Amino acid sequence: MTTLNILSGGAAQGLVRGLAEAFKAQTGFGIDGEFGAVGIMADKLRAGTPADLVILTQALLAKLAEEKLVAPSSLTDVGRVETALAVRSRDPKLTVKTEADLREVLRGADAIYVPDTKASTAGQHVAKVLDQLGIAYEVASRLKIFPNGATAMRELAASTAARPIGCTQATEIIATDGLTLSGSLPPGYALVTMYTAGVTVRAAHPKEAAALIALLTGADRRDLRQRMGFTG
């Protein structure tokens, strides 16, 4: 079977997976590729990794278009994703409404599962939040850092720690069995990121890449996007 190659931030993995059968029925193509920290995915494209389609942050897609790696006319916003807190399904949900609540929750956790703090959108934000709260040094030994949010959340779901929590994109939390989306970050610490799709200039299958973008962003898929953690 012919496949469409994707390089995507982990935030879109659940949505793409949810549309794979519809895409196959429409085009006869399967979907292959990589999902991970957006910075790493962008660098893979720059290094020549074959890809028909990229789904990354709006800011990164704009840069890749400027670098003539993505067709500017193809850029289409998929939706916004918030960075949120996660707990194992068997653990009580967290109540985090203020800065003090967030500081207390992070201090009280014996393991904090996060994606790459240098290359991923959510991981960079977690590092910034810990600095803002003044507890980066205090909790450093409890940080469990993984290459991407999906891996971090799988590890959280399997964690044997007593009071573990996670922080990554809401979409990655929702897509992971055994976890509960526990709430947004409080005012002053929240992050909502727009994700955008685009067809690469070296796409082997540009027509099918455009068809997948239409599926991802179509009005008739709004309910699926919302269930997967995307907002308008």
What does this structure look like?
With 232 residues, this protein is of the alpha/beta class. The protein folds into two domains: 3-80 and 193-231, Periplasmic binding protein-like II (D-Maltodextrin-Binding Protein, domain 2, 3-Layer(aba) Sandwich), CATH 3.40.190.10; 81-191, D-Maltodextrin-Binding Protein, domain 2, CATH 3.40.190.10. It contains ten helices and nine strands. The chain has helices spanning 13-27, 38-46, 58-66, 99-108, 121-133, 136-139, 149-157, 170-174, 206-217, 222-227, and strands spanning 3-9, 30-36, 53-57, 76-88, 111-115, 143-146, 164-169, 179-184, 192-199. Strands 1, 2, 3, 4, 5, 6, 7, 8 and 9 form a nine-stranded mixed beta sheet that branches. α1 (13-27) links the parallel β1 (3-9) and β2 (30-36). The chain is globular and about 50 Å long.
The mean pLDDT is 95
H/I helix tally: 10
Instruction: Give unreliable regions as ranges.
Output: none
Work out the oligomeric state of the chains in this entry. Answer: single chain
Level-1 CATH class name of the largest domain: Alpha Beta
The fraction of residues in strands falls at: 25-35%
Structural class comes to alpha/beta
**Biggest sheet layout:** 9 strands, mixed
Supply the CATH superfamily name of the largest domain: Periplasmic binding protein-like II
Strand-and-helix sequence, N→C? EHEHEHEHEHHEHEHEEHH
Q: Which CATH architecture of the largest domain? A: 3-Layer(aba) Sandwich
Write down the overall geometry.
Answer: globular
State the CATH topology of the largest domain: D-Maltodextrin-Binding Protein, domain 2
Radius of gyration: 18 Å
What's the count of strands?
9
**How many domain regions?**
2
Q: What is the first-to-last residue Cα distance?
A: 33 Å
